[in-house]
Specification:
Distance between the termini: 93 Å
Low-confidence stretches: 1-24, 380-389, 403-409
Helix content: 10-25%
Structural class: alpha+beta
Number of strands: 12
Order of helices and strands: EEEEHEHHEEHEHHHHHEEEEHH
Strand content: 15-25%
Shape: extended
Largest sheet: 5 strands, antiparallel
Length: 457
């Protein structure tokens, strides 16, 4: 799911919407809608540039002391710890001032580091070499932490472009004494070590994944401002307090519980807060849930498992009567119809074993007969001609090779059933033996089947 230039396999890839050069795979990307707007005073433009690191997982602000013009996606060489670092420009111009104000940073702060120059080929080559070492170093650093039996989890390591410093990101429930671990890292890896603790949600954002909704995690794609989530948000939305369903991949409550909370709070303002129980002649009815989509309140009576949906007006009326000391005889529940359409059963269900081979053969034969009738072909079942593209031509004309003189219409043949003189009046006499027939001599070979026939004598 990563782009072709960085080759990242994180779920927060560019998804064919661009590459690293366009900021398509940067989850902290900000659209610069002030980029092409002209300004009257170019000297008053913001001199601070936003730079992203580690494929968009972290970004910082640097001062453009060289007064060069940088575009989004350019690689720049920055001031680092005892050396230099390489980052990617993610935002420039007036929109950076708004980001600084949002993050409560001063544009004239001396703590903001400077941009040294535009990244050269040698800087980019050193940058790729350092990034190639991160996977091996992360595996070895985890093994060292397990040897010291430290209750911490290393999630990511980021090495500076010149290889003189490395930052280890870890999560832990309690305080961890990693002084001995830092000594082992510095001795083995030969660079300066910085340990930075992050939260569980930040770790899930770095690792990425697929949520229960089937989409990429919000924290790994667009969400970078984490707010506290508690079970009160689930109660307002009438969700069952199930820790398994309400927890995300980070093990904490899902951030999406806060997305629709304001909508539910606005809708719940029309519901009475003092109607948790209603006094009736059949007992005290207790509220079990509120349906804000249908404006109904569901109650249940003691020793009864039936649920009674009541309208908001009916609940307010019953509560007013209870305030006067009157108990209603019945709740007057409304009938709730399901909005889901009923499924119509098909007239025929194709199940295993319902279709036999014989029925398939009959259907195949019926289709062949229908196709023959549609062509108007009445040649009969014994017609085995190879070319069935049309009806057979009418060859009822006279044939010159046979001396047929019956005319072109081939009328009825004459009746030759009369008496024959050589066999008597009743044709019962024996046929005289007149020898071999002159038209079929026996002293020679018979003509070939393909030769034309001799005319009848």
């Amino acid at each position: 799911m990563g782009c072709g230039s960085c080759g990242t396999s994180k779920p927060g890839g560019c998804q064919s919407n661009g590459g690293c050069s366009t900021g398509g795979c940067n989850r902290l990307n900000v659209h610069d809608w002030l980029l092409n707007l002209p300004f009257s005073d170019p000297e008053s433009n913001c001199k601070i540039v936003e730079v992203s690191f580690k494929q968009g997982s972290r970004k910082e602000y640097f001062r453009n002391a060289t007064l060069q013009f940088f575009e989004k996606g350019d690689y720049v060489t920055l001031e680092g710890v005892s050396g230099f670092d390489v980052g990617e420009v993610s935002l420039t111009g007036e929109l950076v001032r708004m980001q600084l104000k949002k993050n409560k940073l001063e544009e004239t702060s001396p703590e903001i580091k400077k941009i040294i120059r535009r990244a050269t080929e040698r800087d980019i080559e050193a940058f790729h070499i350092s990034k190639g070492r991160e996977k091996d170093i992360l595996a070895r650093s985890r093994a060292m932490a397990m040897e010291l039996k430290l209750q911490m989890k290393l999630s990511e390591v980021e090495i500076q472009a010149d290889g003189k410093k490395a930052t280890f990101f870890y999560t832990a429930d309690d305080r961890v004494d990693f002084r001995e671990l830092i000594k082992m890292y510095a001795t083995d890896f030969k660079f300066k070590v910085e340990m930075r603790q992050i939260g569980i949600r930040q770790e899930a954002a770095k690792l990425g994944g697929i949520g229960s909704c089937g989409r990429e995690l919000c924290c790994s794609t667009w969400l970078h401002d984490f707010k506290s989530v508690n079970t009160t948000a689930a109660r307002y939305q009438n969700l069952s307090i199930n820790q398994t369903k309400l927890s995300g991949q980070c093990g904490r409550l899902k951030c999406c519980l806060n997305f629709e909370l304001d909508t539910y709070l606005d809708a719940l303002q029309n519901f009475p807060d003092y109607a948790d129980s209603l006094d009736t002649a059949m007992g005290t009815a207790h509220l079990i849930k509120k349906d804000i989509f249908k404006n109904l309140m569901w109650y249940i009576l003691p020793n009864n498992s039936k649920h009674y949906p009541l309208t908001i007006q009916r609940v307010k009326e019953i509560k007013r009567l209870n305030g006067q000391g009157v108990k209603v005889d019945e709740l007057q529940a409304v009938e709730v119809t399901s909005s889901k359409p009923k499924e119509v059963e098909p007239a025929f269900a194709d199940v295993v074993g319902q279709i036999s081979l014989r029925s398939l053969e009959r259907n195949d034969k019926r289709r062949r007969d229908n196709s023959r009738d549609s062509r108007g072909d009445n040649r009969g079942p014994n017609n085995n001609r190879s070319n069935n593209n049309g009806p057979r031509p009418n060859n009822n004309g006279p044939r010159p090779d046979r001396g047929d003189s019956r005319g072109p219409n081939n009328g009825p043949r004459p009746n030759n059933n009369g008496p024959r003189p050589d066999r008597g009046p009743n044709n019962n006499g024996p046929r005289p033996n007149n020898g071999p027939r002159p038209n079929r001599p026996n002293n020679g070979p018979r003509p070939a089947p393909d030769a034309p026939k001799a005319p009848d004598q």
